[in-house]
# Entry
Amino acid sequence: MINFFLYHTFGFMVAAALMSVGLTGITLAILRRRAILDLPNERSSHTVPTPRGGGWGVMLALLPFWIWALWKAGRLDQPAEIVLVGSTVLLMAVSWIDDRRGLGPAIRFATQIVAVGAVMALLPADLSLTAGLLPLPLDRLVAGFVWLWFVNLFNFMDGIDGITGGATAAMGFGLMLVWLKGRAGEPYNIGNASEVSIRDVARLAAALVTPALPVNFKLSADAAYLTDNPNRRCPDLAKAARDLGYAAEIPLGEGLRRTFRSLQIA
# Structure
């Protein structure tokens, strides 16, 4: 039986993506025409003046479809959902003011704390964000801290050419694949089935920079370092392969080479 809601929603996702591309192009043209640019300095990863505020195109496309999805799912009466949308708009406004006039880090961080805290406070009491591993107050505190960390990490990555868009696209396609082909409530490991040590990763990376670059490896002086700290972290990809048809196609060495090449081009 065809799930018409699923494919209807998928169609809206494609429309939102196309609208995002179009609006981003228009937004960038307006920003360049008005000379709203971020000029490169010694700490910048970009070498040419870059428009400030290009994310408006993405958000103006996302917001109406986001609200539609909440309405379609019957969740527009949920306080946490409404505040989440409102907090997003608040962060957009503060970011724009910061781009145009410059705001101190204290104001920006305080706004982020207010936005995240408001959503955390309104989440249903029976919803555990740590799968029941922590009591509710600690659950909200840890989740809020991780959310704040991710917001600032994302802002940091946004200053590196292409990394934010690439990471977001990869996460978006991955979530869409799980949504379309996965099973509800099931976690999926994504990675490479080939096991490799951190020391080998460091050696591969060093060889790409210069073959003569040494890699220093030292064992921890803490005798209890490996207590409750697994020695092996190779993911089990069997469920992802079975349900999603997932298979890693790019070997680690080739992935590192492509990463270094893109950084050199940027």
